[in-house]
Amino acid sequence: MSAGHVTLRDVTLRDGLQDEAPIDTGAKLAIYEALVAAGIRDLELTSFVRPDRVPAMADAEAMCAATAADADSVTRWGLVLNRRGAERALAAGLRHLQFVVSVSDTHSRHNAGRSTDEAMDDLAAVVELAAAEDGVVEVTLACSFGCPYEGRVPVERVVDVAVRAAEAGVASIGLADTIGVAVPSEVTALVEAVGERVDVGLGVHLHDTRGLGVANALAAIAAGIDRVDGSVGALGGCPFAPGASGNLALEDLDHVLVAEGVTTGVDVEGLVAAAEVACSAVGREVASHVGQAGPRFPHP
Amino acid sequence: MSAGHVTLRDVTLRDGLQDEAPIDTGAKLAIYEALVAAGIRDLELTSFVRPDRVPAMADAEAMCAATAADADSVTRWGLVLNRRGAERALAAGLRHLQFVVSVSDTHSRHNAGRSTDEAMDDLAAVVELAAAEDGVVEVTLACSFGCPYEGRVPVERVVDVAVRAAEAGVASIGLADTIGVAVPSEVTALVEAVGERVDVGLGVHLHDTRGLGVANALAAIAAGIDRVDGSVGALGGCPFAPGASGNLALEDLDHVLVAEGVTTGVDVEGLVAAAEVACSAVGREVASHVGQAGPRFPHP
Questions:
Q1: Which domains, ranges and CATH numbers included, belong to chain B?
Q2: A80: number of CA atoms within 13 Å, CB side?
Q3: B152 close to A (CB below 8 A)
Q4: What is the pLDDT of residue B3?
Q5: Can you state the angle between helices A268-282 and A25-38, rounded to 10 degrees?
Q6: Do A180 and B293 meet the contact criterion of CB atoms below 8 Å apart?
Q7: What does the alpha-carbon distance between residue A42 and residue A205 come to, in Å, rounded to a whole number?
């Protein structure tokens, strides 16, 4: 791996917490502070979804207000699924909106009650809403590497949706391995295929479900992406079974990147400390390798 | 990753069990049968060490006798630390001896009570003993990627010991990441450096302590090694802390290799079944990702 810079975007406060029993806003802010102290400058702050569906995200507006002073120093992303969510996020002061579209029609219908095309129709409107407030939109392409209903997803399908998203004016595209099925060669192939067709920022959102989170991240970085999503403590990510891994653990990824000479600006020990704050808040063990074993010596 | 063949050598019965409370020989044979049923044809059967030091390996001779009928179809390795162990292994009918030498003097003294050079002196004698019985010796170079006492180990040091081992007549060399500190670029560099200087089989023995077991294995395979060691269920490997990962889980590695078109001859579901047998025998949860989440769909 050649030296370079990669942005680590933390998703603990959104993906990491969304399926947990709600914790109070103060506890979330303690996690936020620990992440920022570790050097994280790009993070999913919350999501603007229905509080009856995702009670853990009911304090979205409060989280935005409490972190508003950092608006210039921390890129705070709010996840939205539709225009209503986008309006809420913008009203709450966010200028970085993540719009999720599943590239699988079946998954899109199950998850968002509409087809991929219907979601894409909304995307253009969301980009327009955001642009009116000097905001930007990233589209996260769920199921980019496979769908729980449809199985394999053809590369051409993902490229097609990515091209349409770029035409709709998104600032960046996230390729999400929603169910943790990708292997490194597939990551390389998809990143290259999408990268050849669109001229916007590219990131990956990876799950460690089958132990390939770090290997897939390294493949994505080698293929030229700008950003990798992950949580501290491997929180979240809809694990299949108790003990199964969720999101890629940022401390595990940062640990190897620093050793490989890739600049992240993020401190491994700081991430482990943030993992302890976050996992303790939801009553879970820190599930990352580096969180359990500590960094290698001498680090890096 | 280009297609090819890699041998997966199972180390469950030795590295996986050596630090556990002893289980009876029948329970070990059930693990052995499950491994062979999964397609494993290369495995560490036991070690010939002092039963007062490693009580879990006290039935070494019984394990050899009970599996003697497979001598032609399964490559059964016995770990030895000295001449006495080699004599026992040969007398028990094994013809594949693994001789462990730490490339770090300090670790060698702590682990085996002698320097690297003193261990290497014994290696020549062990090769001679084995050759007299048509046996072969592999040397496992412990601490090839770092030492708990000395920290980083220079590549030149490992290459030097490897060259001397090849001159002593070993059939193959295993590069062991004893404490789980390697990162992929270091694996690539060491495999290439050793491979340029010796003309014997090369394998790697990896631990997943910092979540890099699979990524390091993929790097080693890409660099040309013939064999990767691992256990089922991630058993063993002297984890640092409860819950910390030990050996690289073979089912996690096999899962990605099959998906990448690398032939192993080993069945992922069979490995998961063997992991369940092995982990149940020692009262632990299956700690592999694929053991917990199941193979991806469609598999491969």
A1: 4-293 (3.20.20.70)
A2: 32
A3: yes
A4: 63
A5: 170
A6: yes
A7: 13
Q: State the nearest Cα–Cα gap between B244 and chain A, in angstroms.
A: 6
pTM (two decimals): 0.95
Rounded Cα distance, B228 and A110, in Å: 41
Q: Using alpha carbons, select from A74, A43, A49 the residue that is nearest to residue A61.
A: A49
Which ipTM did the prediction report?
Answer: 0.93
Instruction: Tell me, yes or no, if A238 is annotated catalytic.
Output: yes
Q: Which residue has the tokens 């992303």?
A: A77
Contact yes or no for A10/A264 (Cβ under 8 A): no
What is the rounded distance in angstroms from the CA atom of residue B294 to the CA atom of residue A247?
A: 17
Nearest Cβ partner of B244 from A180, A185, A293? A293
Distance from CA of A79 to the nearest CA of B (A): 27
Chain centre to alpha carbon of residue A183: 18
Of all residues in chain B, what percent carry a pLDDT higher than 90?
89
Cα-flanking dihedrals φ and ψ of residue A172, to 5°?
-160, 165
Tens-place pLDDT, residues A152-195 = 999 999 999 999 999 999 999 999 999 899 999 999 999 999 99
Phi, psi of B74 (to 5 degrees): -125, 130
Cα dist from A179 to A53, A199, A236, whole Å: 20, 27, 12
Q: Are A244 and B289 an interchain contact pair (Cβ–Cβ within 8 Å)? A: yes
The model's pLDDT over A237-291, given as tens digits with 9 standing for 90+, comes to 654 444 456 899 999 999 999 999 999 999 999 999 999 999 999 999 898 999 9
Is residue B258 less than 8 Å (CB to CB) from chain A?
A: no
Task: Determine the pLDDT at residue A239.
Answer: 46
Both tokens of residue A8? 């680590």
Segment 163-182 of chain B within 8 Å of chain A by CB: 180-181
Is B4 within 8 Å of chain A by CB?
no
Within an 8 Å CB–CB cutoff, is residue B220 touching chain A?
no
Question: Could you say which DSSP state residue A52 is in?
Answer: T
CB pair distance less than 8 Å for B298 and A181: no
